[in-house]
Amino acid sequence: MAAPMAQVGHMMCSKTLRCFRRFSSGKGVKRKIQKSSSKVQRPIDEIIQNITSPRPVSFQQMYHLRRQEAHRSILVQIPSKKHISSVYNQVKPLGKVMNIFHFSHIRDYALIELESRAAVQRVLRSASHFSNDEKIPVESRVLLLTGGFESVGKQTIPLPVQSDPKEKFEISDCYNATGLSHQIEILYHRNHLTDLGCRLRFFVCSKLEDMLSGLFPHCAVLPFGSTVNGFGKHDCDLDMTLSLLQSEHQVGKNPNLKFMTKKRTDNERGFTQRSLQTVADIIEQFVPLCLGVHRILNARVPIIKFRNDACNIECDLSFSHISGHRMSEVLWVLSELDPRVAPLVFCVRHWARVNEVNRKHPGPWVSNFMLTALVVFFLQSHPQPVIPKLRTLYHPVNPHDDFSAPFMSDYTKVPKTKNTDDLGELLKGFFAFYSSFDFQSRGMSVIEGTTFSKPDFSPVYLENPLDVNLNVCKNINIPEFERLKKAFETALWNLETNGEKKQRAWGLMSILLPNGNGNNGKLHVHVGDLFSQRSESGNQDGNQDGNVDDHQVDNQGGNQDGNQDNVSDMRTKAEPSH
Protein backbone atom coordinates (compact mmCIF):
# COMPACT_ATOMS: atom_id res chain seq x y z
CA MET A 1 0.00 0.00 0.00
CA ALA A 2 1.28 3.40 -0.91
CA ALA A 3 2.29 5.85 1.81
CA PRO A 4 -0.54 7.94 3.29
CA MET A 5 -1.26 11.05 1.29
CA ALA A 6 -1.85 14.46 2.82
CA GLN A 7 -4.68 15.34 0.49
CA VAL A 8 -6.93 12.51 -0.69
CA GLY A 9 -10.30 12.50 -2.31
CA HIS A 10 -10.40 15.89 -4.00
CA MET A 11 -12.59 15.14 -6.99
CA MET A 12 -11.25 18.09 -8.99
CA CYS A 13 -12.03 18.77 -12.60
CA SER A 14 -10.97 21.21 -15.29
CA LYS A 15 -13.08 22.89 -17.90
CA THR A 16 -12.07 20.46 -20.57
CA LEU A 17 -9.58 17.66 -21.07
CA ARG A 18 -7.36 20.12 -22.92
CA CYS A 19 -7.40 22.43 -19.90
CA PHE A 20 -6.62 19.46 -17.65
CA ARG A 21 -3.48 18.67 -19.61
CA ARG A 22 -2.43 22.31 -19.51
CA PHE A 23 -2.94 22.62 -15.76
CA SER A 24 -1.24 19.31 -14.99
CA SER A 25 2.04 20.58 -16.41
CA GLY A 26 2.57 22.29 -13.04
CA LYS A 27 3.85 25.50 -14.65
CA GLY A 28 1.43 27.71 -12.79
CA VAL A 29 -0.72 28.34 -15.85
CA LYS A 30 -3.85 30.36 -15.07
CA ARG A 31 -6.81 30.92 -17.33
CA LYS A 32 -7.87 34.52 -17.78
CA ILE A 33 -11.48 35.12 -16.92
CA GLN A 34 -12.79 38.38 -18.28
CA LYS A 35 -15.01 40.50 -16.08
CA SER A 36 -15.18 37.80 -13.41
CA SER A 37 -15.51 38.56 -9.75
CA SER A 38 -13.18 36.90 -7.23
CA LYS A 39 -16.12 34.78 -6.15
CA VAL A 40 -16.41 33.30 -9.63
CA GLN A 41 -12.62 32.94 -10.01
CA ARG A 42 -12.19 30.69 -6.97
CA PRO A 43 -13.08 27.30 -8.53
CA ILE A 44 -10.35 27.74 -11.16
CA ASP A 45 -7.80 28.63 -8.48
CA GLU A 46 -8.79 25.44 -6.63
CA ILE A 47 -8.18 23.41 -9.78
CA ILE A 48 -4.69 24.88 -10.22
CA GLN A 49 -3.88 24.28 -6.53
CA ASN A 50 -5.04 20.68 -6.39
CA ILE A 51 -4.57 19.29 -9.88
CA THR A 52 -1.09 17.91 -9.14
CA SER A 53 -1.93 16.56 -5.66
CA PRO A 54 -1.16 12.86 -5.14
CA ARG A 55 -4.21 10.70 -5.76
CA PRO A 56 -5.10 7.11 -4.88
CA VAL A 57 -5.03 4.72 -7.83
CA SER A 58 -7.79 2.37 -6.66
CA PHE A 59 -10.99 2.51 -4.65
CA GLN A 60 -9.49 0.21 -2.01
CA GLN A 61 -6.48 2.46 -1.57
CA MET A 62 -8.65 5.56 -1.24
CA TYR A 63 -10.86 3.78 1.28
CA HIS A 64 -7.90 2.55 3.34
CA LEU A 65 -6.29 6.00 3.44
CA ARG A 66 -9.52 7.68 4.52
CA ARG A 67 -10.12 5.14 7.29
CA GLN A 68 -6.58 5.59 8.56
CA GLU A 69 -7.00 9.38 8.58
CA ALA A 70 -10.20 9.04 10.59
CA HIS A 71 -8.69 6.78 13.25
CA ARG A 72 -5.75 9.16 13.66
CA SER A 73 -8.08 12.12 14.29
CA ILE A 74 -9.75 13.76 17.28
CA LEU A 75 -12.60 16.29 17.34
CA VAL A 76 -12.38 19.12 19.87
CA GLN A 77 -15.10 21.65 20.66
CA ILE A 78 -13.54 25.08 21.19
CA PRO A 79 -14.87 28.50 22.24
CA SER A 80 -13.88 30.09 18.92
CA LYS A 81 -11.48 29.71 16.01
CA LYS A 82 -8.79 31.76 17.76
CA HIS A 83 -8.58 29.03 20.43
CA ILE A 84 -7.08 26.54 17.97
CA SER A 85 -3.64 27.58 19.21
CA SER A 86 -4.66 26.48 22.72
CA VAL A 87 -5.72 23.06 21.42
CA TYR A 88 -2.47 22.74 19.53
CA ASN A 89 -0.48 23.46 22.70
CA GLN A 90 -2.40 20.74 24.58
CA VAL A 91 -1.81 18.14 21.87
CA LYS A 92 1.67 18.78 20.46
CA PRO A 93 3.64 17.31 23.45
CA LEU A 94 1.79 14.01 22.90
CA GLY A 95 2.21 13.56 19.16
CA LYS A 96 2.99 15.32 15.91
CA VAL A 97 0.03 17.17 14.40
CA MET A 98 -0.39 16.46 10.68
CA ASN A 99 -3.48 18.51 9.79
CA ILE A 100 -5.85 20.93 11.53
CA PHE A 101 -9.33 21.77 10.25
CA HIS A 102 -11.80 24.29 11.62
CA PHE A 103 -15.55 24.31 11.06
CA SER A 104 -18.62 25.73 12.74
CA HIS A 105 -22.13 24.46 13.32
CA ILE A 106 -23.76 26.38 16.18
CA ARG A 107 -20.41 25.93 17.97
CA ASP A 108 -16.78 25.88 16.80
CA TYR A 109 -14.81 22.67 16.34
CA ALA A 110 -11.27 21.64 15.45
CA LEU A 111 -10.63 18.33 13.66
CA ILE A 112 -7.02 17.39 14.36
CA GLU A 113 -5.19 14.60 12.55
CA LEU A 114 -2.20 13.19 14.45
CA GLU A 115 0.72 11.13 13.20
CA SER A 116 -0.51 7.77 14.56
CA ARG A 117 -3.17 5.98 16.55
CA ALA A 118 -0.68 5.71 19.38
CA ALA A 119 -0.50 9.51 19.55
CA VAL A 120 -4.31 9.65 19.71
CA GLN A 121 -4.27 7.20 22.64
CA ARG A 122 -1.72 9.37 24.46
CA VAL A 123 -4.05 12.36 24.08
CA LEU A 124 -7.04 10.37 25.35
CA ARG A 125 -5.09 9.07 28.35
CA SER A 126 -4.20 12.65 29.26
CA ALA A 127 -7.83 13.88 29.15
CA SER A 128 -10.03 13.99 32.26
CA HIS A 129 -13.73 13.46 33.02
CA PHE A 130 -16.21 15.97 34.42
CA SER A 131 -16.70 15.62 38.18
CA ASN A 132 -20.45 16.09 37.73
CA ASP A 133 -22.26 12.85 38.57
CA GLU A 134 -24.89 13.56 35.93
CA LYS A 135 -22.27 13.18 33.21
CA ILE A 136 -21.87 9.65 31.83
CA PRO A 137 -18.11 8.85 31.95
CA VAL A 138 -17.75 7.81 28.32
CA GLU A 139 -14.33 8.08 26.71
CA SER A 140 -14.21 8.89 23.01
CA ARG A 141 -12.21 10.91 20.50
CA VAL A 142 -14.65 13.81 20.95
CA LEU A 143 -13.23 16.30 23.47
CA LEU A 144 -14.05 19.71 24.94
CA LEU A 145 -11.48 22.45 25.56
CA THR A 146 -12.24 24.04 28.93
CA GLY A 147 -8.97 25.79 29.78
CA GLY A 148 -5.39 26.58 28.79
CA PHE A 149 -6.34 29.80 27.04
CA GLU A 150 -3.15 31.68 27.90
CA SER A 151 -1.81 31.47 24.35
CA VAL A 152 -4.96 32.79 22.67
CA GLY A 153 -3.99 35.52 20.25
CA LYS A 154 -0.31 35.33 21.30
CA GLN A 155 1.01 32.33 19.40
CA THR A 156 0.92 31.13 15.83
CA ILE A 157 0.99 27.46 14.98
CA PRO A 158 3.31 26.02 12.32
CA LEU A 159 0.44 24.50 10.31
CA PRO A 160 -2.25 26.13 8.18
CA VAL A 161 -5.73 25.88 9.69
CA GLN A 162 -7.86 24.52 6.88
CA SER A 163 -11.57 25.17 6.48
CA ASP A 164 -14.25 24.97 3.84
CA PRO A 165 -15.05 28.07 1.80
CA LYS A 166 -18.07 29.97 3.06
CA GLU A 167 -19.47 30.68 -0.41
CA LYS A 168 -22.34 28.48 -1.51
CA PHE A 169 -23.63 28.20 -5.04
CA GLU A 170 -25.97 30.92 -6.21
CA ILE A 171 -27.35 31.02 -9.71
CA SER A 172 -26.16 34.63 -10.08
CA ASP A 173 -22.58 33.36 -9.84
CA CYS A 174 -22.99 31.99 -13.36
CA TYR A 175 -23.70 35.33 -15.02
CA ASN A 176 -20.09 36.51 -15.28
CA ALA A 177 -18.72 33.10 -16.29
CA THR A 178 -16.85 32.85 -19.57
CA GLY A 179 -19.06 30.13 -21.02
CA LEU A 180 -21.36 27.21 -20.31
CA SER A 181 -18.44 24.96 -19.31
CA HIS A 182 -17.25 27.51 -16.78
CA GLN A 183 -20.78 27.74 -15.34
CA ILE A 184 -20.82 23.96 -14.84
CA GLU A 185 -17.45 24.18 -13.08
CA ILE A 186 -18.79 26.82 -10.69
CA LEU A 187 -21.83 24.71 -9.88
CA TYR A 188 -19.62 21.68 -9.22
CA HIS A 189 -16.99 23.37 -7.08
CA ARG A 190 -19.52 25.13 -4.90
CA ASN A 191 -21.50 21.94 -4.24
CA HIS A 192 -19.18 18.93 -4.24
CA LEU A 193 -18.13 17.12 -1.07
CA THR A 194 -14.89 18.66 0.16
CA ASP A 195 -11.90 17.04 1.81
CA LEU A 196 -13.12 18.20 5.23
CA GLY A 197 -16.64 16.93 4.53
CA CYS A 198 -15.26 13.52 3.62
CA ARG A 199 -12.98 13.42 6.67
CA LEU A 200 -15.87 14.24 9.01
CA ARG A 201 -18.01 11.45 7.59
CA PHE A 202 -15.25 8.88 7.95
CA PHE A 203 -14.63 10.20 11.47
CA VAL A 204 -18.26 9.59 12.44
CA CYS A 205 -17.90 5.99 11.21
CA SER A 206 -14.67 5.44 13.12
CA LYS A 207 -16.22 6.83 16.30
CA LEU A 208 -19.02 4.26 16.10
CA GLU A 209 -16.42 1.54 15.60
CA ASP A 210 -14.69 2.64 18.79
CA MET A 211 -17.91 2.38 20.78
CA LEU A 212 -18.65 -1.18 19.55
CA SER A 213 -15.11 -2.54 19.59
CA GLY A 214 -15.35 -3.76 23.19
CA LEU A 215 -17.68 -6.59 22.13
CA PHE A 216 -16.55 -6.80 18.51
CA PRO A 217 -12.84 -5.89 18.27
CA HIS A 218 -12.80 -6.42 14.49
CA CYS A 219 -16.07 -4.69 13.62
CA ALA A 220 -16.14 -2.06 10.90
CA VAL A 221 -18.55 0.78 10.19
CA LEU A 222 -18.10 1.43 6.49
CA PRO A 223 -19.47 4.40 4.55
CA PHE A 224 -20.92 3.88 1.10
CA GLY A 225 -22.90 5.94 -1.39
CA SER A 226 -22.30 9.67 -1.82
CA THR A 227 -19.51 9.85 0.78
CA VAL A 228 -17.19 7.64 -1.27
CA ASN A 229 -18.51 7.35 -4.85
CA GLY A 230 -17.12 10.65 -6.15
CA PHE A 231 -20.52 12.30 -6.62
CA GLY A 232 -21.25 13.49 -3.07
CA LYS A 233 -22.64 16.94 -2.30
CA HIS A 234 -21.33 19.09 0.54
CA ASP A 235 -24.50 18.37 2.55
CA CYS A 236 -25.05 14.74 1.57
CA ASP A 237 -26.27 12.17 4.08
CA LEU A 238 -23.93 9.55 5.47
CA ASP A 239 -24.88 5.96 4.59
CA MET A 240 -23.05 3.33 6.66
CA THR A 241 -23.03 -0.42 7.10
CA LEU A 242 -21.99 -2.32 10.20
CA SER A 243 -19.93 -5.46 9.73
CA LEU A 244 -19.20 -7.41 12.93
CA LEU A 245 -16.20 -9.29 11.51
CA GLN A 246 -14.10 -8.46 8.47
CA SER A 247 -12.80 -11.50 6.60
CA GLU A 248 -9.21 -10.24 6.54
CA HIS A 249 -9.03 -10.65 10.32
CA GLN A 250 -9.41 -14.43 9.88
CA VAL A 251 -6.28 -14.73 7.75
CA GLY A 252 -3.38 -16.47 9.51
CA LYS A 253 -5.39 -17.39 12.61
CA ASN A 254 -5.21 -20.74 14.43
CA PRO A 255 -7.98 -22.95 12.94
CA ASN A 256 -7.82 -25.28 15.95
CA LEU A 257 -8.63 -22.68 18.59
CA LYS A 258 -12.01 -20.96 18.27
CA PHE A 259 -13.73 -18.24 20.30
CA MET A 260 -16.69 -19.46 22.34
CA THR A 261 -19.81 -17.58 21.13
CA LYS A 262 -23.60 -17.74 21.24
CA LYS A 263 -25.68 -19.09 18.37
CA ARG A 264 -28.31 -16.94 16.69
CA THR A 265 -31.79 -17.94 17.84
CA ASP A 266 -33.74 -16.39 14.94
CA ASN A 267 -33.41 -15.85 11.19
CA GLU A 268 -31.07 -13.32 9.64
CA ARG A 269 -33.66 -10.56 9.42
CA GLY A 270 -34.72 -11.04 13.03
CA PHE A 271 -31.10 -11.00 14.16
CA THR A 272 -30.47 -7.81 12.17
CA GLN A 273 -33.49 -6.07 13.70
CA ARG A 274 -32.60 -7.02 17.28
CA SER A 275 -28.94 -6.12 16.79
CA LEU A 276 -29.78 -2.71 15.32
CA GLN A 277 -32.15 -2.09 18.22
CA THR A 278 -29.27 -2.72 20.64
CA VAL A 279 -26.88 -0.53 18.63
CA ALA A 280 -29.51 2.24 18.53
CA ASP A 281 -29.78 2.11 22.34
CA ILE A 282 -25.99 2.43 22.66
CA ILE A 283 -25.86 5.38 20.27
CA GLU A 284 -28.77 7.11 21.98
CA GLN A 285 -27.44 6.66 25.51
CA PHE A 286 -23.68 6.84 25.21
CA VAL A 287 -22.31 8.24 21.93
CA PRO A 288 -21.60 11.99 22.23
CA LEU A 289 -23.24 14.40 19.75
CA CYS A 290 -25.50 11.75 18.21
CA LEU A 291 -29.09 13.01 18.46
CA GLY A 292 -32.54 12.19 17.11
CA VAL A 293 -32.11 8.41 16.97
CA HIS A 294 -34.90 6.72 15.00
CA ARG A 295 -35.28 2.97 14.60
CA ILE A 296 -36.76 1.96 11.24
CA LEU A 297 -36.55 -1.78 11.73
CA ASN A 298 -39.52 -3.02 9.72
CA ALA A 299 -38.35 -1.54 6.42
CA ARG A 300 -37.16 -3.80 3.60
CA VAL A 301 -33.64 -2.88 4.71
CA PRO A 302 -33.76 -2.15 8.48
CA ILE A 303 -31.83 1.00 9.40
CA ILE A 304 -31.07 3.37 12.25
CA LYS A 305 -31.31 7.10 11.50
CA PHE A 306 -29.64 9.77 13.62
CA ARG A 307 -27.92 13.13 13.30
CA ASN A 308 -24.39 14.07 14.28
CA ASP A 309 -24.94 17.46 15.87
CA ALA A 310 -21.37 18.75 15.62
CA CYS A 311 -20.89 17.87 11.96
CA ASN A 312 -24.54 18.52 11.02
CA ILE A 313 -24.69 15.22 9.14
CA GLU A 314 -27.77 13.02 8.78
CA CYS A 315 -26.73 9.39 9.22
CA ASP A 316 -28.24 6.03 8.19
CA LEU A 317 -26.78 2.83 9.64
CA SER A 318 -27.64 -0.65 8.35
CA PHE A 319 -26.09 -4.11 8.51
CA SER A 320 -23.83 -5.46 5.77
CA HIS A 321 -24.77 -3.99 2.40
CA ILE A 322 -22.39 -5.55 -0.12
CA SER A 323 -24.17 -4.23 -3.20
CA GLY A 324 -24.03 -0.67 -1.87
CA HIS A 325 -20.26 -0.83 -1.47
CA ARG A 326 -19.83 -2.52 -4.82
CA MET A 327 -21.83 0.16 -6.61
CA SER A 328 -19.87 2.87 -4.78
CA GLU A 329 -16.68 1.37 -6.21
CA VAL A 330 -18.13 1.30 -9.72
CA LEU A 331 -19.11 4.97 -9.55
CA TRP A 332 -15.84 6.08 -7.93
CA VAL A 333 -13.78 4.46 -10.70
CA LEU A 334 -15.93 6.16 -13.34
CA SER A 335 -15.59 9.56 -11.64
CA GLU A 336 -11.81 9.18 -11.60
CA LEU A 337 -11.39 8.09 -15.22
CA ASP A 338 -12.02 11.57 -16.63
CA PRO A 339 -12.24 14.96 -14.88
CA ARG A 340 -15.45 15.84 -16.75
CA VAL A 341 -17.57 12.96 -15.44
CA ALA A 342 -18.35 14.23 -11.92
CA PRO A 343 -19.15 17.85 -12.93
CA LEU A 344 -21.48 16.64 -15.68
CA VAL A 345 -23.30 14.31 -13.26
CA PHE A 346 -23.60 17.13 -10.71
CA CYS A 347 -25.06 19.44 -13.32
CA VAL A 348 -27.64 16.92 -14.55
CA ARG A 349 -28.70 16.05 -11.00
CA HIS A 350 -29.03 19.72 -10.05
CA TRP A 351 -31.06 20.40 -13.19
CA ALA A 352 -33.38 17.48 -12.37
CA ARG A 353 -33.96 18.69 -8.83
CA VAL A 354 -34.62 22.32 -9.79
CA ASN A 355 -37.06 21.27 -12.50
CA GLU A 356 -38.75 18.69 -10.24
CA VAL A 357 -37.83 15.80 -12.52
CA ASN A 358 -36.86 13.83 -9.42
CA ARG A 359 -37.72 14.07 -5.73
CA LYS A 360 -35.99 13.53 -2.43
CA HIS A 361 -38.25 10.62 -1.49
CA PRO A 362 -38.66 7.39 -3.50
CA GLY A 363 -41.46 7.17 -6.03
CA PRO A 364 -42.30 6.47 -9.69
CA TRP A 365 -39.80 9.03 -10.94
CA VAL A 366 -36.14 9.03 -11.88
CA SER A 367 -33.65 8.89 -8.97
CA ASN A 368 -30.17 10.36 -8.62
CA PHE A 369 -28.63 6.97 -9.26
CA MET A 370 -30.65 6.54 -12.46
CA LEU A 371 -29.57 9.99 -13.66
CA THR A 372 -25.95 9.08 -12.94
CA ALA A 373 -26.31 5.84 -14.92
CA LEU A 374 -27.89 7.74 -17.83
CA VAL A 375 -24.92 10.14 -17.89
CA VAL A 376 -22.51 7.19 -17.80
CA PHE A 377 -24.24 5.46 -20.71
CA PHE A 378 -24.25 8.67 -22.74
CA LEU A 379 -20.50 9.13 -22.18
CA GLN A 380 -19.91 5.53 -23.27
CA SER A 381 -22.11 5.94 -26.37
CA HIS A 382 -20.46 9.12 -27.62
CA PRO A 383 -18.92 8.76 -31.13
CA GLN A 384 -15.62 9.26 -29.28
CA PRO A 385 -16.34 7.61 -25.91
CA VAL A 386 -15.33 9.62 -22.85
CA ILE A 387 -15.27 6.57 -20.57
CA PRO A 388 -15.01 2.87 -21.47
CA LYS A 389 -17.57 0.15 -20.94
CA LEU A 390 -17.41 -1.35 -17.47
CA ARG A 391 -16.48 -4.76 -18.85
CA THR A 392 -12.95 -3.49 -19.53
CA LEU A 393 -12.40 -2.33 -15.95
CA TYR A 394 -12.59 -5.54 -13.94
CA HIS A 395 -10.50 -8.69 -13.63
CA PRO A 396 -12.49 -11.89 -14.04
CA VAL A 397 -10.96 -14.99 -12.49
CA ASN A 398 -12.36 -16.97 -15.41
CA PRO A 399 -14.33 -16.03 -18.55
CA HIS A 400 -17.63 -17.05 -16.93
CA ASP A 401 -17.35 -14.76 -13.90
CA ASP A 402 -20.11 -12.21 -13.47
CA PHE A 403 -19.61 -8.55 -12.65
CA SER A 404 -18.74 -9.28 -9.03
CA ALA A 405 -15.12 -9.86 -10.02
CA PRO A 406 -12.63 -7.35 -8.59
CA PHE A 407 -11.83 -4.08 -10.33
CA MET A 408 -8.41 -3.38 -11.74
CA SER A 409 -5.95 -2.33 -9.05
CA ASP A 410 -4.80 0.83 -10.86
CA TYR A 411 -7.38 2.80 -12.82
CA THR A 412 -4.68 5.16 -14.13
CA LYS A 413 -3.62 2.39 -16.54
CA VAL A 414 -6.89 2.76 -18.48
CA PRO A 415 -6.10 4.35 -21.87
CA LYS A 416 -7.02 8.04 -22.01
CA THR A 417 -9.92 9.10 -24.19
CA LYS A 418 -9.39 11.03 -27.42
CA ASN A 419 -12.58 12.98 -26.81
CA THR A 420 -11.87 16.69 -26.31
CA ASP A 421 -15.42 18.04 -25.94
CA ASP A 422 -15.78 20.57 -23.16
CA LEU A 423 -18.39 20.31 -20.43
CA GLY A 424 -20.84 22.58 -22.23
CA GLU A 425 -20.72 20.48 -25.39
CA LEU A 426 -21.20 17.30 -23.36
CA LEU A 427 -24.20 18.73 -21.49
CA LYS A 428 -25.92 19.69 -24.75
CA GLY A 429 -25.00 16.31 -26.17
CA PHE A 430 -26.58 14.57 -23.17
CA PHE A 431 -29.92 16.29 -23.64
CA ALA A 432 -29.81 15.78 -27.42
CA PHE A 433 -28.96 12.08 -27.02
CA TYR A 434 -31.92 11.31 -24.77
CA SER A 435 -34.33 13.63 -26.59
CA SER A 436 -34.05 11.31 -29.60
CA PHE A 437 -33.28 7.99 -27.89
CA ASP A 438 -35.53 5.04 -28.77
CA PHE A 439 -36.78 4.25 -25.26
CA GLN A 440 -39.69 2.25 -26.68
CA SER A 441 -37.66 -0.63 -28.09
CA ARG A 442 -34.09 -0.31 -26.75
CA GLY A 443 -32.54 -1.00 -23.37
CA MET A 444 -29.16 0.26 -22.17
CA SER A 445 -26.16 -1.61 -20.73
CA VAL A 446 -23.35 0.27 -19.00
CA ILE A 447 -21.45 -3.01 -18.69
CA GLU A 448 -21.14 -3.41 -22.45
CA GLY A 449 -21.73 0.24 -23.38
CA THR A 450 -24.36 -0.73 -25.97
CA THR A 451 -28.12 -0.96 -26.43
CA PHE A 452 -30.15 -4.14 -26.73
CA SER A 453 -33.74 -5.14 -27.43
CA LYS A 454 -35.87 -4.32 -24.40
CA PRO A 455 -37.00 -7.51 -22.61
CA ASP A 456 -40.18 -5.97 -21.12
CA PHE A 457 -42.56 -3.03 -21.44
CA SER A 458 -40.94 -0.72 -18.87
CA PRO A 459 -40.86 2.91 -20.09
CA VAL A 460 -37.09 2.98 -19.45
CA TYR A 461 -34.85 -0.09 -19.29
CA LEU A 462 -31.37 0.40 -17.85
CA GLU A 463 -29.49 -2.75 -16.95
CA ASN A 464 -28.33 -3.01 -13.34
CA PRO A 465 -24.51 -3.33 -13.51
CA LEU A 466 -24.53 -5.61 -10.46
CA ASP A 467 -27.33 -7.88 -11.71
CA VAL A 468 -27.99 -7.89 -15.44
CA ASN A 469 -31.42 -9.43 -14.89
CA LEU A 470 -32.68 -6.30 -13.10
CA ASN A 471 -33.80 -2.94 -14.45
CA VAL A 472 -32.70 -0.01 -12.27
CA CYS A 473 -35.45 2.17 -13.81
CA LYS A 474 -38.28 -0.30 -13.24
CA ASN A 475 -40.08 2.05 -10.84
CA ILE A 476 -40.61 4.81 -13.46
CA ASN A 477 -44.23 4.96 -14.64
CA ILE A 478 -45.47 6.29 -17.98
CA PRO A 479 -46.52 9.81 -16.80
CA GLU A 480 -43.13 10.37 -15.15
CA PHE A 481 -41.35 9.02 -18.22
CA GLU A 482 -43.24 11.47 -20.44
CA ARG A 483 -42.32 14.22 -18.00
CA LEU A 484 -38.65 13.20 -18.15
CA LYS A 485 -38.63 13.06 -21.97
CA LYS A 486 -40.26 16.48 -22.18
CA ALA A 487 -37.70 17.86 -19.72
CA PHE A 488 -34.83 16.61 -21.92
CA GLU A 489 -36.32 18.36 -24.97
CA THR A 490 -37.01 21.61 -23.10
CA ALA A 491 -33.50 21.76 -21.62
CA LEU A 492 -31.92 21.21 -25.03
CA TRP A 493 -34.08 23.93 -26.57
CA ASN A 494 -33.21 26.40 -23.80
CA LEU A 495 -29.46 25.75 -24.06
CA GLU A 496 -29.49 26.16 -27.84
CA THR A 497 -31.55 29.36 -27.82
CA ASN A 498 -29.95 31.00 -24.77
CA GLY A 499 -26.33 30.10 -25.31
CA GLU A 500 -24.94 33.62 -25.55
CA LYS A 501 -24.57 36.21 -22.84
CA LYS A 502 -27.13 38.49 -24.46
CA GLN A 503 -29.99 37.23 -22.33
CA ARG A 504 -30.46 37.85 -18.64
CA ALA A 505 -30.62 34.09 -18.06
CA TRP A 506 -28.07 32.58 -20.41
CA GLY A 507 -26.36 29.21 -20.63
CA LEU A 508 -26.80 27.08 -17.53
CA MET A 509 -29.02 29.71 -15.95
CA SER A 510 -31.65 29.12 -18.64
CA ILE A 511 -32.27 25.56 -17.39
CA LEU A 512 -31.78 26.16 -13.65
CA LEU A 513 -33.95 29.23 -13.05
CA PRO A 514 -37.46 28.04 -12.14
CA ASN A 515 -38.92 31.44 -13.07
CA GLY A 516 -36.84 31.91 -16.17
CA ASN A 517 -36.58 30.03 -19.40
CA GLY A 518 -35.66 26.75 -17.72
CA ASN A 519 -39.08 25.97 -16.30
CA ASN A 520 -39.54 22.52 -17.79
CA GLY A 521 -42.79 23.37 -19.54
CA LYS A 522 -44.27 25.28 -16.59
CA LEU A 523 -45.83 28.65 -17.32
CA HIS A 524 -45.76 31.36 -14.64
CA VAL A 525 -48.75 33.66 -15.03
CA HIS A 526 -50.76 36.13 -12.97
CA VAL A 527 -54.11 34.70 -11.96
CA GLY A 528 -55.82 38.00 -12.82
CA ASP A 529 -54.62 37.62 -16.41
CA LEU A 530 -56.50 34.34 -16.73
CA PHE A 531 -59.79 36.17 -16.38
CA SER A 532 -59.03 39.14 -18.61
CA GLN A 533 -60.42 37.46 -21.72
CA ARG A 534 -63.65 36.59 -19.92
CA SER A 535 -64.21 40.18 -18.84
CA GLU A 536 -63.61 41.43 -22.37
CA SER A 537 -66.26 39.02 -23.72
CA GLY A 538 -68.91 40.14 -21.28
CA ASN A 539 -68.27 37.89 -18.27
CA GLN A 540 -67.93 40.18 -15.25
CA ASP A 541 -67.36 37.44 -12.66
CA GLY A 542 -63.56 37.42 -13.04
CA ASN A 543 -61.26 39.18 -10.63
CA GLN A 544 -60.40 42.59 -12.04
CA ASP A 545 -58.37 44.21 -9.29
CA GLY A 546 -55.10 42.62 -10.28
CA ASN A 547 -54.20 41.99 -6.64
CA VAL A 548 -54.19 38.20 -6.87
CA ASP A 549 -51.14 36.14 -5.84
CA ASP A 550 -49.10 34.58 -8.61
CA HIS A 551 -49.62 30.84 -9.13
CA GLN A 552 -47.63 28.34 -11.10
CA VAL A 553 -49.52 26.49 -13.81
CA ASP A 554 -48.26 23.10 -14.96
CA ASN A 555 -49.27 22.53 -18.55
CA GLN A 556 -49.16 18.77 -18.14
CA GLY A 557 -51.35 18.71 -15.06
CA GLY A 558 -53.32 21.98 -15.28
CA ASN A 559 -53.72 24.28 -12.29
CA GLN A 560 -54.17 23.14 -8.73
CA ASP A 561 -57.94 22.74 -9.20
CA GLY A 562 -57.52 20.52 -12.25
CA ASN A 563 -59.22 23.09 -14.53
CA GLN A 564 -57.22 23.51 -17.73
CA ASP A 565 -59.72 25.66 -19.67
CA ASN A 566 -58.03 28.93 -18.78
CA VAL A 567 -54.56 27.86 -19.87
CA SER A 568 -55.21 25.67 -22.92
CA ASP A 569 -54.80 28.59 -25.30
CA MET A 570 -51.41 29.40 -23.77
CA ARG A 571 -50.01 25.86 -24.03
CA THR A 572 -48.13 26.52 -27.23
CA LYS A 573 -46.26 29.45 -25.67
CA ALA A 574 -44.79 27.22 -22.99
CA GLU A 575 -43.75 24.40 -25.28
CA PRO A 576 -40.53 24.93 -27.25
CA SER A 577 -40.43 24.23 -30.94
CA HIS A 578 -37.66 22.06 -32.34
Descriptive report:
- It is built from 17 helices and 16 strands.
- The chain is an alpha+beta fold and 578 residues long.
- Among the domains are: 72-163, Alpha-Beta Plaits (2-Layer Sandwich); 340-349 and 363-486, Poly(a)-polymerase, middle domain (Orthogonal Bundle); 496-574, no CATH class.
- The strands form five sheets. A five-stranded mixed β-sheet has the order 4-1-3-2-5, sandwiched between helices. Strands 6-7-10-9-8 form a five-stranded mixed β-sheet.
- The longest helix is centred in the C-terminal third of the chain and has 20 residues, at 478-497.
- Mean pLDDT is 79; it is low at 1-53 and 515-578.
CATH architecture of the domain at 340-349 and 363-486: Orthogonal Bundle
In the predicted model, the low-confidence regions spanning at least 5 consecutive residues are 1-53, 515-578
Largest sheet: 5 strands, mixed
| Oligomeric state of shown chains | single chain
The top level CATH class name of the domain at 340-349 and 363-486: Mainly Alpha
Could you please say which CATH topology of the domain at 340-349 and 363-486 applies here?
Poly(a)-polymerase, middle domain
Summary tags:
single chain, alpha+beta, Alpha-Beta Plaits, Poly(a)-polymerase, middle domain, five-stranded mixed sheet, disordered C terminus
